[in-house]
Amino acid sequence: xxxxxxxxxxxxxxACEQICRDVFRxxxxxxxxxxxxxxxxEFQDEVRDxxxxxxxxxxxxxxxxxxxxx
Length: 70
Hints:
By secondary structure, the chain is α+β, with helices and mostly antiparallel strands. The protein has helices at 15-19, 44-53, 66-69; strands spanning 2-5, 24-26, 32-34, 59-62. Strand 2 (24-26) and strand 3 (32-34) form a beta hairpin. Residues 66-70 have low confidence and may be disordered. It has one domain (2-69): Alpha-Beta Plaits, CATH 3.30.70.20. It has 3 helices and 4 strands, in the order E-H-E-E-H-E-H.
């Protein structure tokens, strides 16, 4: 799983950071960013929860490569 935050959509509410500090942080501009691009399996459920909780839908998740192989 890969994750990124759309800076144009982020409002800096910090919900993602509260849900998964291992993957998300607020930067110096007060906007969220992903600390990693590839999410370890142990954090994937939290990242999905963070994406679902984002009020602006700024968190973009790319699941595994199965779709591309088909």
